[in-house]
Amino acid sequence: MNKKTIIPVICVLLILLLCVPAFASESSASRVYDYAGMLTGTELNSLEALLTSVSAKNDFDVVVVTEKDTGDYTGQKYADSFYEVCVSYYGMREDGILLLWIESTSEAYISTSGYGTYAFTDAGLSYLFDEIGPSLRSRDYAAAFRIFAEKSGELVAMAKAGNRMTTKPGAETKKERNPIVGAIGSLIAGLLPAGILTGSWKNRLKSVHQNTSARGYAVEGSFVIEKGRDTFLYNDVTKTKKENGTTVHKSDSGQVHGGASRKF
Predict the structure, then answer these.
(1) Is residue 152 in a domain?
(2) Residue 86 has what DSSP assignment?
(3) By residue range, what is the domain housing residue 43?
(4) What angle do CA 123, 129, 131 make, to 5 degrees?
(5) Beta 246-250 vs 242-243: how paired, if at all?
(6) CA nearest neighbour of 124 among 163, 66, 94, 168
(7) If DSSP states are collapsed to H, E and C, what string results for 146-211?
(8) What pLDDT digit, counting tens, does each position of 215-230 carry?
């Protein structure tokens, strides 16, 4: 087994070890994994009930995970692997969305899977962060996770009804009020009389004439080209795969996920 194969395997095994304590005390259908201890017992039970209801109603799993630290793993890698191993392996649907909160970095990461990569566009993910942001900043985690559950359910229902969120609410209104058009109009209105005035001044400058050649400025014999060539240095291309308004990536296992992150 080569080094590239060993690293993803170790990552999966570590996450499995993290999952064992939670599954030992909770049902295999648990959708809340509060490893960072952000919630009280009452808050955890209430959130579990809400997530279960939203997931069943939409035939789509909504999961919340908290961690104190993810070590050397990025939020993206941790969230993707957690959903694949801890959720899918224990009977969850392939279609789902997971919110990971990392206490040490105050970072929230969202990973989508299956139908979630279609239902949650980049605009939809940004909207979710906007909605849970105020509660996360005030460290009201129960409220933030509750809002995440409710809004996720709404966005999935919208997508299944053929009305995905492709632009954040209010984006079109802001576009209509964009002052750029007005600014361009004002600029043209100001340049027109200025152009007429400067044109009048130019016509009065009889002593100044345009010179179409630089011959009069060059010292004869001082500029000699012996050899010329074009050298190609490099080509730097960055590719981002975007499907149906959603930026997607592949996890270590090769599965396709959508996702985004934001610090608070």
Answers:
(1) yes
(2) I
(3) 3-170+242-263
(4) 100
(5) antiparallel
(6) 168
(7) HHHHHHHHHHHHHHHCCCCCCCCCCHHHHHHCCCHHHHHHHHHHHHHHHHHHHHHHHHHCCCCCCC
(8) 665 566 655 555 555 4
pLDDT tens-digit readout, 234-253? 333 333 567 678 999 999 89
d(CA 150, CA 49): 12
The residue behind tokens 């002593």 is 207
- Cβ(168)–Cβ(129) under 8 Å? no
pLDDT computed for residue 177 by the predictor: 47
Q: Beta strands 32-34 and 61-67: pairing type?
A: parallel
pLDDT value of residue 61: 94
| Rounded Cα–Cα distance for residues 96 and 98 (Å) | 7
C-alpha–C-alpha distance, residues 252 and 131, integer Å: 30
Query: What is the number of structural domains in the chain?
Result: 1
CATH number of the structural domain spanning residue 33: 3.10.310.50
Tokens 């299956």 -> residue: 114
pLDDT the model gives residue 176: 40
| Cα 71 to Cα 233: distance, rounded to the nearest angstrom | 39
